[in-house]
Amino acid sequence: MGNIAKRHNFILEQLKRDGYVKVQELSEQLEVSEVTIRKDLKQLESKKLLYRNHGSASSLSRIIADKHIDIKEKMHTEEKIRIAKAACLLLEPNDKITIASGTTLFAFAKEIDTMEQITVITSSVKVSFTLCYHLNIEIIQLGGILRKNSVSVIGHYAENILESLSCNKLFLGVDGIDLDYGLTTSDMSEARINQQMIDAAQKIIVLTDSSKFGRRGFCKICDIGRIHHIITDRNAPPHMIDAIRDKGIEVTLV
Known about the structure:
The chain is of the alpha/beta class. The protein contains ten helices and 15 strands. It has helices at about 5-20, 25-30, 35-45, 70, 75-90, 105-110, 125-130, 155-165, 190-200, 240-245; strands at about 20, 50-55, 55-60, 95-100, 120, 135-140, 145, 150-155, 170, 175-180, 180-185, 205, 220, 230, 250-254. α6 links the parallel β4 and β5 (about 120).
């Protein structure tokens, strides 16, 4: 397809339908070189019609707005339960783990049924309330300002506590995963405390449903290379899963 306007319209229609496009696939579909497609994507990005990723592009509408946890809890519930159960298989006796805030992390907490002694550090009030009934789970509830949208604590009090702690596993939720931009969340203070959790952990495990792939939240948490393992559902885009595995990151699909 040699006409630039027709190519651009085709690309935008694909974005509207799927939320992302791949350079290689567009090259084959439009019968032009990948260099031409990259130029097309650059032009469309300059007009603020999309943003480019590694070998692909995503719709600007994929930038996530902040929602209350009660709303997000009703979304992708079956996928979150499967992810939570898979995460439970990673727990070991005497683990010292951090559980961040978010609905997938809350689902994880509800599935934990270990008979072994573990310690849980968490910013999430809902996670603490769920786990407090387990006699063999010691809970360290971070303190600070209560962020009502996530029912979790934020601020320098919580961050200062994390500076004096170390854990062997962090279970982290995100609002977006972008191959180039990294992991994101929709709140600046949430991003900051997530960064402190990452610094305090030996292994970072991301629990997220497939809707977060190819999307960006308002605030960056970290580069994707900082994490070790992602557990997600089978609807995650295959080209992103392949690219993530190529970076040496373990991915579990459930």
